[in-house]
Amino acid sequence: MRTSVKYALWCGSFVVLLMYAVQYAVDRGLRKSKMQYFATWNDIYSGKINADVIVNGSSRAFLHISPQILDTILHLNSYNLGLDGWGFPMQFARFRIYLQHNKKPRYIIQSIDLDNFEDRKDLYSYRQFLPYLNDREIRDITSRYEGKFTFPEMYFPLFKYNNNLNLVKEGLFCYFNIGKVATNKLYKGFGPRSFAWDSSFERFKAAYPNGTVKPVQENAVREFEQFLNYCRDNDIKVIFVFTPILREELAMEKNAGEIIAMIDGYSKKYNFLFLNYANDTLGADRKYFYNSQHLNAQGAALFTTKLASDLKPFVQAAP
Predict the structure, then answer these.
(1) 249-261, pLDDT tens digit by residue?
(2) Suppose 159 and one of 53, 63, 152, 275 were both cysteines; which one would form an S-S bond, judging by CB atoms 3.0 to 4.6 Å apart?
(3) What is the average pLDDT score of the chain?
(4) 107-112 and 53-56: which strand pairing?
């Protein structure tokens, strides 16, 4: 009987250790993966970005501002940290993690949109955080949201990859350098989309014929001010940029003027530049957008060229 118990314990311990070993390999492999989920996070954690200019913001940063064009015109090293689907609190967390592994930038282009001061409720696109759950910053920020990681997901081997066998495969292939792995379709974090105009704006108008009011949440405002104070105190110049939006969309956002006025107030208080393209000519033509809030690849190239030219008098080229 004792022998059977010992054997069972030994077998159980071996299986658990094997599962931890597999998770280690998957985590380490995904930290080398070029999947879009992980590409920018991996660049951050590698400590090899060290950009002069960081583009910070949501999907409107991620999709609208090309580091390649910025680098060419401004003669600086830039990188786009834009985070799809997230308001400022998660953007700020990503920036803090960036600073832990990379030198501070000289400039931050902070993309502003009408959702800037809204913190979403759910843990959107949770898979992107899976290989980094041992990072306290990641654990702390993700714990705020509905669908947050459970105790077993954080501490039981391989539990977090339940129903994500494609990620297990990708991680193992990357770790052992075997098989076919994902390729990086981003350039310095930038992900333009050559999509045709979709029907989402028509659905939005039908659902909200009288327009909408964007939330302004206290915690997002508070963290935005913490970010600005940090940048001021550490000699990082912030440049607020409201990238083009379809004018038809802008007209339906009832408190757009108030949010833009808030940013203008911060610009004056901190002596930071504010470039406002809310009424730019690009916003008058749907051919430059794939939906009412996001430029397509053609629109992003035209806009970044204009932005870089407007920035040139205010930034100094790298020595």
Answers:
(1) 999 999 999 999 9
(2) 152
(3) 93
(4) parallel
pTM above 0.70, yes or no: yes
Cα-only R_g, the chain: 22
Identify the bridge partners of residue 80 per DSSP, sorted by sequence position.
55
* SS3 (DSSP) at 112: strand
Q: Using alpha carbons only, what angle is made at residue 52 by residues 48 and 54, rounded to the nearest 5 degrees? A: 85
Domain 51-151+187-314: CATH superfamily, name plus number: SGNH hydrolase (3.40.50.1110)
Closest CA to 300 of 76, 41, 82: 82
User: One-letter amino acid identity for 308?
Assistant: A
Distance, CA of 193 to CA of 195 (rounded, Å): 5
> Phi and psi dihedrals of 101, rounded to 5?
-120, -5
Give pLDDT tens digits for 208-234: 999 999 999 999 999 999 999 999 999
Burial of residue 196 (CB within 10 Å: 0-12, 13-18, 19+) is exposed
Q: Which residues of 282-305 are buried (b: 16+ CB within 10 A; e: fewer)?
A: bbeebebbbbbbbbbbebbbbbbe
Nearest to 184 by CA among 32, 82, 81, 23: 32
Evaluate whether 126 touches 38 at the Cβ level (below 8 Å): no
Q: Which residue has the tokens 């409201």?
A: 242
Q: What is the distance between the alpha carbons of residues 218 and 93, in angstroms, rounded to a whole number? A: 17
